[in-house]
Write a structure and sequence with these properties.
The chain is α/β, with parallel strands linked by helices and 291 residues long. It has a single domain, classed as Alpha/Beta hydrolase fold, catalytic domain (Rossmann fold), CATH 3.40.50. The protein contains eleven helices and eight strands. Strands 1-2-4-3-5-6-7-8 form an eight-stranded mixed sheet, with helices on both faces. The radius of gyration is 18 Å and the shape is globular. The two termini are 32 Å apart. The model has no long low-confidence stretch (mean pLDDT 94). This is Pimeloyl-ACP methyl ester carboxylesterase.
């Protein structure tokens, strides 16, 4: 069954923030977070990418919240977290995630990441290998041989948003991120609804800063060989950047990795195949829990 992203679905997304859910890090930065779902020893942590905010995940985790404790948060320089000037050192994102998990007392979470946030999940698991239950990586932007392709793409997007603006960036990204099903059947109403939210949630300065930050990450493939946590590598079957073949190349150099593709979706399967996205995370978590 094809889940097309429609304007009606986009308009119905719950994007409301919850008052009081902010913690202050040692640096004085405030990070917005959410915790919901059931009281469970197993926690799924949704790491935001450059373009998403924490409340959006509530719309894609309805079923997961009936089985697990769910945590989401806003990156610094995004959403309700502290806005900053200048490029953010990637290590600061790692420290922020660490602060959220420590504040909430989360132990051995399953980190779920998409697109560029798969870099953050990878780096966190390398920094704290004994404190991660598993990594669910959707549309990973790294590969088994190096990062030149990723960085050229980011440089292209950075040039667009800097020289033209956020609307031009959205227009460039839209036919890449979403599958032909959404672009064709969602039509102009879905395009306009998604564009409206993209522009509302991302200023030109934020986009520029966050894209610049992603260029500071080292893409050495040897990092993948050092990951000890179980890893799920997944992508929509119509992902513009990540093919099943690329996922299998990555899995081949990792100690404990498995590969899945999600039908009828592109680079953002949580939008286009929400039910399968949730089911995929659930299968992965259950497969790694001790009997």
């Amino acid at each position: 069954m094809v889940e097309v992203v429609t304007a009606e679905k986009v308009d119905a997304y719950d994007l409301g923030y919850i008052a009081g859910n902010r913690l202050e890090t040692e640096e004085g930065v405030h990070i917005y977070y959410e915790r919901y779902g059931i009281d469970s020893p197993t926690t799924v942590v949704l790491i935001p990418n450059l373009f998403l905010i924490a409340p959006l995940w509530r719309n894609f985790t309805t079923e997961l919240a009936t089985k697990y404790s769910i945590v989401s948060y806003d990156l610094r320089n995004k959403g309700a977290s502290t806005q900053v000037d200048g490029v953010v050192d990637f290590q600061q994102h790692i420290h922020d995630l660490r602060a959220v998990l420590t504040h909430l007392g989360v132990e051995r979470p399953y980190l779920v990441a998409s697109s560029d946030s798969t870099l953050l999940a990878r780096e966190y698991a390398l920094a704290y290998p004994d404190e991660v239950g598993g990594l669910g990586l959707y549309g990973p932007v790294f590969n088994a041989i190096g990062g030149r392709r990723r960085k050229r793409l980011i440089q292209s997007w950075l040039s667009t948003v800097t020289n033209v603006g956020p609307t031009a960036l959205f227009n460039e990204m839209y036919p890449l991120i979403y599958s032909h099903h959404t672009v064709e059947y969602g039509g102009s109403p879905a395009y306009l609804a998604l564009k409206e939210r993209f522009i509302a949630l991302s200023s030109q300065q934020q986009l520029t800063t966050n894209l610049q930050t992603s260029l500071t990450v080292d893409d050495d493939p040897d990092k993948l060989r050092r990951l000890t946590a179980p890893v799920l590598l997944s992508a929509g079957e119509n992902d513009f950047q990540t093919s099943e073949g690329m996922l299998r190349e990555i899995a081949a150099i990792m100690p404990d990795a498995r590969v899945e593709t999600i039908p009828h979706s592109g680079h953002a399967p949580y939008f286009e195949a929400t039910a399968e996205f949730e089911a995929s995370i659930d299968r992965f978590v259950q497969s790694t829990l001790a009997p």
